[in-house]
Request: fold
Amino acid sequence: MQLSDLDFEKSYTYADYLQWTFEDRLEILKGKLFKMTPAPSRIHQDVTIIIARELSLYLKGNPCRVYTAPFDVRLSCKNAADQTVTTVFQPDICVICNLEKLDDRGCVGAPDIVVEILSPGNNQKELRNKFEIYEEAKIQEYWVIWPVEQTVLQYTLSAEGKYVASRILAAGDKVTTPILPGFVLDLEEVFEEASL
Reply:
């Protein structure tokens, strides 16, 4: 089977996803297929590595774990059959503090933090489709990063289960989170290092 054989109007599950051997990376959001950006830009990769490194250094000795794409996150209950899982995505970075959500194939359930670094062409999917899915799944924080513009928008889940957006953060600002007390991500350092 080739990618061109798939019907992008059809609904798919994680069981379907496991059978595909395409080089192209796909995500399934509520049963619908989305083709991922083929190869992220250099700045996308740099920002991903820098943020993942900072999170990893902070988390050393901490029960939370940080993962980068490709890493499957399946939104369902722990023992759900693969054919019932209709959302599987690969965030650029995710932090998981409940290690019981981890299995050999990735994460089952909502990560605590998801970081998506935008590339040209994926803005609509990230900002509309994933926002709704992440909020519904009760992912505590969702960071959206525009590497070219050097800006970050941090969404935090309210007590009512709705995302509240931070002001737009830029170089000179710092990202902090109550999920990781004491963690500080200096955006000026991130974007400066990424632009070398």
Summary: The chain has a mean pLDDT of 88. The chain has four helices and 15 strands. The longest strand covers residues 151-157. The CA atoms of residues 69 and 92 lie 5 Å apart.
